[in-house]
Amino acid sequence: MSDPQEKSKSNDGNSATAVQTKPVPTRRPPQLLPPYNVLLHNDDSNEVLFVVETIVMLTPLNAQDAVEKMKEAHETGVSLLMTTHLERAELIQQQFSSRGLTVTVEPA
């Protein structure tokens, strides 16, 4: 009778074991989030300075750009403040709303 362990030994006396390798999953590059526009609507009930200060406080716009956006909203009814991902756009919308200003969010 032969020893079962001897069958698994190769000619040089070492044990041969089969190693199963798992396939490496392919990685996809991260995808960009879809863009959304944050729109400031005309506001006749708040002071101009308050609107400009709020824009500067809640967006990356500087004071000069904030004045331009405020004027555009006053003259045309709406102004594009920024384009960002949905979660940030909704946060900015809530922050403007808490200060009594109307901002809407729409797909870019």
What does this structure look like?
- The chain has 108 residues and is an alpha+beta fold.
- It has a domain at 45-102.
- Helix content is 39%, strand content 19%.
- The protein is built from 4 helices and 3 strands; from the N terminus they run αβααβαβ.
- The chain has helices at residues 4-7, 48-58, 63-76, 86-98, and strands spanning 35-41, 78-85, 103-107.
- A 3-stranded antiparallel sheet has the order 2-1-3.
- Helix 2 crosses helix 3 (63-76).
- It is rod-shaped, with a radius of gyration of 31 Å.
- The mean pLDDT is 88.
Order of helices and strands: HEHHEHE
Q: Can you count the beta strands?
A: 3
Main pleated-sheet profile: 3 strands, antiparallel
In what range is the share of β-strand residues?
15-25%
Strand order within the widest beta sheet: 2-1-3
**Radius of gyration from CA coordinates:** 31 Å
Helix-strand makeup class: alpha+beta
- Low confidence ranges: none
Overall pLDDT confidence: 88
Name the features.
108 residues; alpha+beta; 3-stranded antiparallel β-sheet; 3 strands; 39% helix; rod-shaped
List the helices and strands and how they pair.
Layout: H1 4-7, E1 35-41, H2 48-58, H3 63-76, E2 78-85, H4 86-98, E3 103-107
Gist of the model:
The protein is an alpha+beta fold. It has helices spanning 4-7, 48-58, 63-76, 86-98, and strands spanning 35-41, 78-85, 103-107. The longest helix has 14 residues, at 63-76.
